[in-house]
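User: Can you recover a sequence for this backbone? Please restate the input before giving your answer.

Assistant: Of course. Working from this structure:
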């Protein structure tokens, strides 16, 4: 811990509210516990969950710092007891349960990865949350296979850009919904066969009309919920799987259970943040094995829409909430 000051700047939430409740504050630099590393943060990725946290609906879980931030990149400056996989000076990115909007953060080794080949620090901060979420839901839980068909709602989101690219790189066909024609075309540049503008088109009708998709999609990654769930089921192939990861349109759904039975469909959902480190470490190992080589092979790439200075976190939140972004938004702490 030599040469590390005892205090650091963080972006904290002064109370539930809009972007204006975000502001710089001084907090003690965390000490890495057993099995943890201390990272000097270079960049922090933004996520929709940070907005929910700022509004007071999604506090950090017990043991995590109170300030937001689910993913960072940076350099390891200290390691706790029992850490063998990393050493000071290593350049890494990490998934966090909170506390990424800070000059330093502690992270369990099981949630830390080296930077993929060809990916810089700003880009790397945009990877952990989306890669952990997409891998665990689309590939581990819903078991998307090469030759199958994936429907991604919110294809231009941070999660969506990872889902489209990963599914394509692993040999699946992909359809994506998005809220504008520009976003639909963007999804197609990432590998979606067809972007579907959910404001002007009915995704069930579009999928039924498309050659090859009339048998239905095999997996739906749903971040909308509400009345989308019944429509997901309509769009689903026999033995298809629907995975819900957010409920932006509501957490209640009405659906025809006879359709569920006739299609032998699976409806499931998960949250990542609250899962134990050991579970996340299993995803980390799979990412290193299955996904990180895809960056080196240029089969997938980080998609950073815009970078904001650390001090401009409120403006970054306002931009995320405006919904015009395509891909990820990152805070740069190196400026
Ligand atoms: N369960 C988990 O473990 C987990 C983990 C990570 C993220 N998530 C969730 O995944 C979602 C994406 O996260 P993010 O950080 O990538 O956020 P984001 O970039 O802000 O994306 C939100 C997306 O939702 C889309 N959307 C909203 N209403 C829609 C609708 N009716 N039909 C289709 N798409 C719609 C938006 O599409 P347009 O902008 O095109 O309108 C936007 O692309 C968030 O809801 C987040 O909470 C869940």
């Amino acid at each position: 811990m030599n040469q590390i000051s005892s205090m650091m700047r963080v972006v904290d939430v002064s109370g539930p509210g809009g972007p204006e409740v975000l502001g710089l504050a001084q907090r003690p630099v965390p000490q890495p516990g057993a099995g943890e590393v201390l990272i000097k943060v270079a960049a922090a990725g933004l996520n929709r969950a940070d907005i929910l946290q700022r509004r007071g609906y999604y506090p950090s879980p017990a043991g995590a710092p109170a300030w937001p931030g689910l993913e960072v990149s940076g350099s390891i400056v200290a390691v706790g007891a029992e850490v063998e996989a990393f050493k000071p000076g290593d350049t890494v990115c990490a998934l966090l349960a909170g506390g990424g909007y800070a000059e330093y953060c502690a992270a369990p080794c099981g949630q830390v990865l080296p930077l993929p080949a060809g990916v810089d620090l700003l880009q790397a901060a945009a990877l952990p949350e989306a890669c952990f979420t997409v891998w665990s839901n689309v590939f581990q839980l819903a078991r998307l296979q090469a030759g199958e068909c994936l429907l991604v709602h919110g294809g231009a989101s941070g999660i969506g850009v990872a889902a489209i690219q990963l599914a394509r790189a692993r040999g699946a066909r992909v359809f994506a919904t998005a809220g504008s024609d520009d976003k639909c075309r963007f999804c197609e540049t990432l590998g979606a066969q067809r972007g579907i503008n959910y404001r002007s088109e009915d995704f069930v009708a579009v999928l039924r009309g498309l050659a090859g998709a009339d048998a239905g999609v095999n997996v739906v990654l749903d971040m909308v919920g509400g009345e989308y769930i019944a429509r997901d089921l309509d769009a689903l192939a026999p033995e298809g799987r629907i995975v819900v990861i957010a409920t932006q349109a509501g957490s209640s759904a009405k659906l025809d259970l006879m359709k569920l039975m006739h299609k032998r469909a699976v409806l499931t959902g998960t949250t990542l943040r609250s899962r134990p480190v050991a579970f996340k470490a299993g995803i980390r190992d799979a990412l290193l094995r299955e996904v990180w080589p895809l960056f080196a092979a240029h089969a997938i790439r980080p998609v950073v829409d815009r970078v904001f200075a650390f001090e401009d976190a409120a403006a970054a939140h306002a931009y995320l909430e405006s919904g015009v972004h395509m891909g990820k938004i990152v805070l740069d702490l190196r400026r």
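That completes the design. The pocket of NAP is lined by residues 47-49, 129, 133, 153-154, 156-160, 177-179, 183, 198, 223-224, 245-246, 248-249, 270-272, 320, 323 (CB under 6 Å).
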